[in-house]
Amino acid sequence: MSARLDVVDLIMQDHREVERLFEQMQADPDKRPLFLPVVTALLIAHSRAEELHVYPAARDEADEHDEVAHSQEEHQEAEQVLTQLQELETDSSKFEQLFNQLVEDVNHHVEEEEQTVLPGMRERLSDQRRHELGKAFLQERSKHLGGQPGQATREELAQQAQNVGVTGTSSMTKDEIAAKLDNQ
Asked: Distance between CA atoms of 183 and 155, rounded to whole angstroms?
């Protein structure tokens, strides 16, 4: 089985790439306008792929219920900060404050995910299952690489709601589901 399609390895590769992008943005603030769309696209695509394929498997097959709900909430928080960053000048003090918050929050999320969810998946899911999830993760991630914060579909929001234990979304509109998630 190809290790390069192991979903755990793919997720960790994305984590390292985001860390590298953050470091470049911190080292050279003049390049922030160039890097912000890249880091935004990667974080959104990564989050959507995790939410649709990885988190349900981690929750249902690897018994990572609480960890998945917590990770889902952290995705929502990061997306809210990304939305705010998109509206600011990259040389403003407010951008600096929010960017530092994003870096801290994402680094915290990565650390927790790599210490809880991913080891649980590696331990409890077969190589074949992690390979299947890796393929699904890559396909979903590719679909969303041009995505922006706040552009989740109704189905994606419903999956996010399920990941955090919100029920009864089948009859809700996209906006109603989003409001429920915001109140979590």
From this structure: 18
Q: What is the DSSP letter of 62?
A: S
CA distance 12 to 8: 6
Q: Where are the domains of the chain?
A: 3-146, 152-184
- Of 16, 5, 3, 7, the C-alpha closest to 110 is 16
CA atoms within 13 A on the CB side of 162: 19
What Cα–Cα distance (Å) separates residue 16 from each residue in 6, 21, 23, 41, 53? 16, 9, 11, 15, 20
pLDDT digit string, tens, across residues 17-30: 999 999 999 999 99
Residue pair 157/181 in contact (Cβ under 8 Å)? The answer is yes
Coil vs helix vs strand at 151: coil
pTM of the model: 0.80
Residue 151 has pLDDT above 70, yes or no: no
Are 45 and 142 within 8 A, CB to CB? yes
